[in-house]
Amino acid sequence: NAGVTQTPKFQVLKTGQSMTLQCAQDMNHNSMYWYRQDPGMGLRLIYYSASEGTTDKGEVPNGYNVSRLNKREFSLRLESAAPSQTSVYFCASSERTGDEQYFGPGTRLTVT
Amino acid sequence: EDQVTQSPEALRLQEGESSSLNCSYTVSGLRGLFWYRQDPGKGPEFLFTLYSAGEEKEKERLKATLTKKESFLHITAPKPEDSATYLCAVQLGNNDMRFGAGTRLTVKP
Hints:
The structure holds two protein chains of two kinds. Chain A has strands at 4-7, 10-13, 19-25, 31-38, 42-49, 56-57, 64-68, 74-78, 87-94, 102-103, 107-111. Chain A is mostly beta strands. In chain A, strands 2, 4, 5, 6, 9, 10 and 11 form a seven-stranded mixed β-sheet that branches. Chain A is globular, with a radius of gyration of 13 Å. In chain A, 37% of the residues are buried. The model of chain A has no long low-confidence stretch (mean pLDDT 95). Chain B is mostly beta strands. In chain B, the strands form two sheets. In chain B, strands 2, 4, 5, 9, 10 and 11 form a six-stranded mixed β-sheet that branches. The relative contact order of chain B is 0.34. The mean pLDDT of chain B is 94. The chains are: A mainly beta, B mainly beta.
């Protein structure tokens, strides 16, 4: 039982490049989330998916897109990376929205 | 505007020295308040959920309490392994989750 897994662990991009962060959970959870964590600012919600087939914007969605591929997988895409998107990205899942969330190990992204 | 503020930013304790961490919030439509622990380089780990004022929850040396405007995480007789960043988060009525910036706790042996 791996919980929530994320790939890659580290990534360096040049401004304007695109990439997709992958997330998968094996807990049969309905809801999944993407956060970014910046020093001194705490975790901020980018997008979430309350259930398979639905996605909604969080606090900071600009510059990102998401896909809920199936119940297990939720990906985050940066179409044209900017230095302001340098951050640590966490994926999380929960049984349903409002329940405690279980987090992956994070992806450290640097955009130069 | 929905806000979650944690204090202090950092706290250094001697082993066995009890203390409290504060999480104050100004949000509309609070659905729940969560406490997480985060170790360096790792994702947050769930500790507690509180739903209504007056509610308390305990786990080992940790006890979380909730009022209408703030929550406290009390640490009794801490050990060095309790050193971590403690995060508070509130679930809003629209399913959004707002996190505080965290309190970085260091417990010296």
